[in-house]
Amino acid sequence: MRYGTLGSACAALIRRDLLLTWRRRGDALNPALFALMVVALFPLALGPEPNQLMQIAAGIVFVAILLASLLALDALFRSDYEDGTLEQIVLSPHPLPVLLACRIGAHWLTTAVPLILVAPLLAEMLHLPSTVMPVLMLALAIATPLLSLLGAVCVALTVGMRRSGMLLALLVLPLYVPVLIFAAGACNAAQAGLPFLAPLLLLGAGLALALVLVPLACAAALRISIS
Amino acid sequence: MNTLSLWFHKFGSPPTFYRLSRLLCPWLFAAACLIGAVGLYAGLVLAPADYQQSDAYRIIFIHVPCAWMSLFAYIFMAANAFIAVVWRIKISEILAMTSAPVGAMFTAVTLLTGAIWGKPMWGTWWTWDARLTSELVLLFLYLGVIGLYSAIEDRRQAARAASFLGLIGIVNVPIVHFSVNWWNTLHQGSTVRLLGPSRIDASMLWPLLLMALATHIWFFASVLARSRTSVLEQESGKEWVREIVQAQGVRHG
């Protein structure tokens, strides 16, 4: 029996995930809608004072996007686990970490990219100064892949469980804390007119590290939970 | 087979572990209580009052040893978790999982005593200082390990999954330890050092070290006591457990 090359397997995997998302386009917008609603709650709770909202805008945007990506995480392996696709991926002759990296990449494209696109709208709702906007977008571009990667390991650990929602939040949120601190820290520094490059560079270093290590960790975790 | 790996296999077998822990446990608890009592008496009565904080500083004799233990317990848990994930040794799985609640308790006591001291000294129960935040994250990591372990039905698979999570969380340990050096915020730097002279007077140092010794022994005693129950529970279908139960039944009549 002949197997396809690793490249063709990865391409097939990504094409399949994107196609599945495209067929259910409405669902793909849910995380963005959720983030929009979370952000809309803050002016209602705190009052519509622009100066007050401006000061906490970057933090709220990050928390909203973090929560949205947390809720989206559950879908990463759920349907594949239920219909047995995941076991086929684990059993395939290609290196599992590479295949999982493709999965996570496709997941990032379909859930995090809509969130990044909606971020300027969220920021505008909270009167974030336009000078901070480029920093916010840059921080999001580095932070959201990191969130997807860190979350993937925890999802892989909980994949066999029936109701894993609350538990997943308990596992994932401590790992998200440093990402939130540095990403929102960069925006707050930019807003205060301070140098903001250092936290972004630290985030970038974390992303470089996670890109290499997380697929390996994710593969090990998946082997534990579906053994 | 050489002596070391023979010893390793022997100690790693559940019946031997059970017997050894039954032998050690009471002694360890007794030693911890005794040393702890001496340490507390020395710390609360014998040690002189601080020139600035007077008697309020004495909470460090609980706070600091517990803070050390919160990290030590995590490292102990992660080391056992590593063995459990790589070599799948049953006793290591159990040791890793039973040290999580003990470590979580030490972390909670650290945060609590810190808050009690912080109110009169800093004027606030809590501040988002780097050391405090990373210690709080440490507590969440412990709770995550405990939660994952109790959520999976199969005990051995649960232990391996939770061990793996514990291994990921180890990145937080150096952050907690070095947080006072990396971020210059409210929590004070380290005064007791392994290398070089400590910046604490000898009259306060020795009760502190005594308390640290007591908490270490207490940790091992507590982990052994918990592991003993876990071993018995997981091995409940085995022959050696039945023998023990029957022997107990005869003794109690």
Secondary-structure map:
The complex is a heterodimer of chains A (227) and B (253).
Chain A: H1 6-23, H2 25-28, H3 30-46, H4 50-73, H5 78-83, H6 85-91, H7 96-125, H8 133-158, H9 165-191, H10 197-225
Helix pairs in contact in A: 1-7, 3-4, 3-7, 4-7, 4-8, 4-9, 7-8, 7-10, 8-9, 8-10, 9-10
Chain B: H1 3-12, H2 14-46, H3 60-87, H4 90-122, H5 130-151, H6 155-168, H7 172-182, H8 202-234, H9 239-252
Helix pairs in contact in B: 2-8, 3-4, 3-6, 3-8, 4-5, 4-6, 4-8, 5-6, 5-7
Description:
- The complex is a heterodimer of chains A (227) and B (253).
- Helix content of chain A is 83%, strand content 0%.
- Chain A has 227 residues and is an all-alpha fold.
- Chain A has one domain.
- In chain A, helix 7 packs across helix 10 (197-225).
- Chain A starts with 5 loop residues before the first helix and ends with a helix.
- Chain B has helices spanning 3-12, 14-46, 60-87, 90-122, 130-151, 155-168, 172-182, 202-234, 239-252.
- In chain B, helix 3 packs antiparallel against helix 4 (90-122).
- Chain B has a single domain (26-46, 56-229), classed as Up-down Bundle (Four Helix Bundle (Hemerythrin (Met), subunit A)).
- Chain B contains 9 helices and no strands.
- At the A-B interface, helix 8, helix 9 and helix 10 of A face helix 5 and helix 6 of B.
Give me the CATH architecture of chain B, please.
Answer: Up-down Bundle
- The amount of beta strand of chain A, in percent, is under 5%
* Fraction of residues in helix of chain B: over 70%
Separate helix tally of chain A: 10
Quaternary state, please?
heterodimer
Structural class of the secondary structure composition of chain A? mainly alpha
Proportion in helices of chain A: over 70%
Largest sheet data of chain A: none
Characterize the overall form of chain B: globular
State the major sheet of chain B: none
Write down the overall mean pLDDT of chain A.
91
Shape of chain A: elongated
What is the count of β-strands of chain A? 0
Uncertain residue segments of chain B: none
